[in-house]
Each structure stands twice: as structure tokens, then as C-alpha cells.
Amino acid sequence: MPQGNTKIFSIAVIPGDGIGREVVPATVSVLKQLGERFGIRFTFVELDWGSDYYFQHGRMMPADALDILRASDAILLGAIGHPKIQDNITLNGLLLPIRRAFDQFVNVRPAILYPGVQSPLAGVKSGEIDMVVVRENTEGEYAQVGGFVHHFDAKEVAVQTSVFTRTGVERVIRYAFELAVKRNGQKRVASITKSNAQAYGMVLWDRVFEEIKTQYPQVQTESLLVDAATVHFLKRPQTFDVIVASNLFGDILSDLSAAITGSIGLAPSANLDPLRRFPSMFEPVHGSAPDIAGQGKANPLATFLSAAMMLEHLEQAEAAKALDGAVRRLLQEGRVRTPDLGGSNSTQEVTEAILKAVSLQ
Ligand code: NAI
Ligand code: MG
Description:
The protein has helices at about 20-40, 50-55, 65-70, 85-100, 165-180, 200-215, 225-235, 245-260, 300-315, 315-335, 345-360, and strands at about 5-15, 40-45, 75-80, 105-110, 130-135, 140-150, 155-165, 190-195, 220-225, 240-245, 270, 280-285. Helix content is about 40%, strand content about 20%.
């Protein structure tokens, strides 16, 4: 926490797997540069958790991992996932326990079609999409309730239960409305469920949404079924502002919102404990991308933008703005970009361009 006039922040850094090991060190170098410029002192606590750790120790992170993380002001995560380990082991061994233990109950995923970036959607122009998916992050379909009966047997049965609590639903929907009020957008909230088929949890969600919306008369609302929402995202992305959805639907819709705004390599996210009892965690939306890992092709901008969200959360607005602005200008100029955006530059070249931009401003 800040002490006296010097701001000191302890940042837990988990590069994780695959391209996480490329984009996270790049981000740390950018944060160091910003720290020098804005007089922010960071202590980076590097943690080698993830799949290699699993191969050595049989677990994704040590038993006291949460205690180590608890001592930090924020967590910067790359991605986890390895082709030789089942994804449910990596996810449940690292990512999901952190989100739950620190009650990071909202996952904020902005999707902006930046000037200079082409949407794959015909007729959608730069600057026209500016939406943010607010995803419930601690329960719902990812609550990990269920089990196997007759496991691995011919007659095996798997039961997977979604968990929707009134408290959990209410707090994420309220966050979405507060964000819509605060943010410089269209003051709209769209709630996405599938309550025609999911007749308990999502009916509760819809009901809570109806209740809360009456408290925000200045905000326009709509409720969509998730299948229809995918179509609306493609047909009228310009009309979305804040979207609030369950853990699973928010996950899926934020890959879609990333795709229509140019590249998943541009999509940042923040796992927030809005009550600030615990460290929040910042990570790109993308995964470990084993198909391009180790080739120096990964777009680091999603992680830079996640770091900008981290700076914002740490109340370092000036530094956050400088980083966000540097990314926007780089995209607008269009000279230095990774292959996912149609360029031929490397992760390192993009990083160098940003380092230069944040030191020059
Ligand atoms: P992915 O997001 O890793 O990759 C999807 C596609 O997007 C790939 O073609 C990849 O090359 C491309 N891509 C992703 N990030 C990019 C970047 N920064 N620059 C350029 N191209 C980029 O999703 P996928 O392939 O489904 O999952 C790979 C692994 O990551 C799996 O093990 C999965 O479980 C894990 N994963 C982990 C997440 C996390 O740690 N939060 C989130 C999503 C997936
Ligand atoms: Mg995802």
C-alpha cells in the first residue's frame, strides 16, 4: 500500500503457461517504465506457478499460494493451460480458486473497436463498438458442484450443478448498473440469460434484474436470451454498452466481443473484489495459445490493457491513462502490430514501441 508520498505496490506476477510467459514479462517492463515516470514503486513478486510447476509438484500452485497472494496489492496473471494437462485441472488448480478465495465477484471485460483496427464485421467502423461484459465470477456454472457416479464405468453418470445465489446475482447486476451510470457510454445494461430452458437459477437472475433496474431509471435495459444475444452482437454491436451475464455466458460472450473488436489479443480483463477486501487479479481474456507459444508472435496489448485496468484499480489514474493512450495511438498509427492484427511485428517490437511511447509522453 502507498506509504507517505512514495507509492509502493506489491504486485504478484504469475506468467503461467504458453504465451503468458511472453506477454507478462513484457508487461512488467512497461509497468517498471511507468513507475519511473510517475513515481510509483512496484515490488514484483514473481511466482512460477502453472503447468511446469504441476509437472514437478503434482499441483498448479503451492498449498500456501493464497496466503502468498493475499499479501499483494494486485495480481497480474498471464494465462494457464497446457496441451498435456486436462484443462479442468489447470483451471481448477489455479485460476478459479483465486477468483473464489478473494471473492473477485465481477470480471470486467471491455471490448472496444479502436481507431485503426478493423472489425471482421462488414459495415462496422472503427470507434463504433465500445462495450463491456460484466461477468459473474464466483458461482453460476463454474461453482464446481457435482460429481461422478460409476466413474469410468460403462454406466457412468456425471452431475454438474449451477449455483445462483440471490446475493451473488444481486451484487454483479448492481455492479453492472453502477458501471453504466459511471462510464461515459450509452447508459444501457443488457442482461443475458437462458431462462426459458434454465428455469431456476436464471429465472432468479431475471427476477433480480427486473427488481434492480427499477432503482436506475436513467439506465435503459434489455433482457436477451444468450442464443439471440450472439446474433445481436453481430448485427448491432454498436447498441451495446454494459452487458451482464453469468459465469459461463460472460465467458463465451467476451470471446465473441473480443473477436468482433479485432482480436482476442486486444481484450483485457479485471477480476475485481469491488469491496477491496482482497487483491484483485488482472489478466488478458485469452488463454495460453499453445499454437503460437514460443514464437514471439503473441500480441501483448491485451495484457498491457489489463495492466492499465490494474493501475486504475490502484488509483494510479495518470499512469493508467498514459498506458491506455499509448496503446490507442499505436493501434491508430498501425505501423507496429502483431500477426493477429495483420502485421508482421514481434511481441518484443510491440513492447519496445510501447516502452518508447510511455517514456516520451
Ligand atoms: P486461446 O485464447 O489460448 O487461443 C485462441 C486463439 O487465439 C489461438 O489461435 C491463439 O493463437 C489466438 N490468440 C490468443 N491470444 C493471442 C494473442 N495474445 N496474440 C495473438 N493471438 C492470440 O484459447 P484456446 O486455444 O482455446 O486455449 C488454449 C489454452 O488456454 C487451453 O489450455 C485453455 O484451457 C487455456 N485458457 C486459459 C485461460 C486463462 O488462463 N484465463 C483462458 C482461456 C483459455
Ligand atoms: Mg474464456
